[in-house]
Amino acid sequence: MDEIVSLTRDIENLNLADSFICAPEDTGQYLRYGNNSLKLLHLNIRSINCNFDGLLLLLHRIQSHLDIIILSECWLSKCPSLPSLPGFSSYASDYKSQNEGVVAYVRVELSCDVVFPTFDDANCLLLKIDDKIAVVALYRSPSIKNIDRFLNSLDNTLKQLNSFSTVVIIGDMNINIVPNSKDPNSDDYLNLTASHAMLPAYVLPTRLNSCLDHVILKSPFSAVSLVLDSLITDHAPILFCIAMSTRPKSLKSTTIQQDIPSMIQEIDKTDFSSILLLTDANYAALILVDLLASIVQKHTRKVNIPNKKRIIKPRITPGLLKCIRHRDKLYRRHKKENDNKILKITFTRYRNFCNNLLKRVKREYERSELHKAKNNPKATWNLVKKIANLNRKQSPTEELLKLADTPELSVNIANKFFANVGKNLASSINLPANSTTSLRSSVSDIHINSSPLGSMALLPTV
């Protein structure tokens, strides 16, 4: 039961990736998540020794900050040592035949744990990032026709990753998953990944008219998959970019209410005998799903959420919201009855209690968020900026340089303005009519005696 609930939650939070075909030089037009994203490149390299120079040329053409590079079919049996890539750490899987092997290049500043799981009929590397993102890098040789052992190993690996909000399977599976594929292994493979709430990020062809290089994804975050039009080998490179955080959600004004007892009661009264008599299992399943969906829709309604019950910040609970509204209600009563001392004391005490409670909840929430991001320096600094309110847009200073014809004259005008602020304020003071003339003159004649820079002296001010 717990597995079903977990699977349902993952499916509800699932985001499908956008997919495109483009040249390596045009990837910047599609990678729209900025620095707060994870970028992976996969390439079936067909011997890392022979085609590593082609990979370097591809990286130069992409001109994007990649975090992880996955290479499959590396022919590790012919590669005693991995080629180095500046700024990256390298990891290699085991291999059995001469053309096998998976290699991962991980950027050195990325906090990542690399695991070498036992995998039947395939090469596998498992990358775990901040206990939130898991990347399963795979290569399955096409020489193995029976994929039962492969699927069993994949199923066991995915079961160990249920706690990760984002799971990515990436690599060359040699299973064609294009729509209406005639590959006999396609359905079993996709059914297994779907049972773990994972769907293909794209079904575009990566080798001739077949989609053999896959990105299978489970994530609540937005993602983009790019099939690059650059053939180093007979497989197209894949660039995959996923956002590391969700976009700000608009405030929900409605909620869905379902009358579960009425649904159960109507299902008990429904006659399913006509469906049981059908001989086509696929058609029977379609009719059953449509019937159940109509019952659910009949007893489901959309309800508007009142403004007083809408939660704006994640740390504010319904109880805290009620506390805030009661504090504001006491304040309005206190403003109307200023002479009521009992009401004043009641309001003051409740206000202090509510404000202290809100501050404590805020500190605990921020502490927990910092603890979650402790292994990710980028996320930690983003959180620090958010807490310290450092993300405010600052007014540009370039306008000050346009006050005159040249920047030098503009700077002189700005300096003159700030240097005379005190004098201008003093001269604008309107003194009473009976004030002495000497006082008026002393205000306008205030000056600061010049003295050598860095001197230490007490000079007369009059």
From TrEMBL:
InterPro entries in the cross-refs: Endo/exonu/phosph_ase_sf
Source organism, top-level taxon: Eukaryota
CC terms in the record's Gene Ontology section: extracellular matrix
GO biological process, any: cell adhesion involved in heart morphogenesis
PANTHER family xref list: REVERSE TRANSCRIPTASE DOMAIN-CONTAINING PROTEIN, TRANSCRIPTASE, PUTATIVE-RELATED-RELATED
The protein, known as: Putative tick transposon
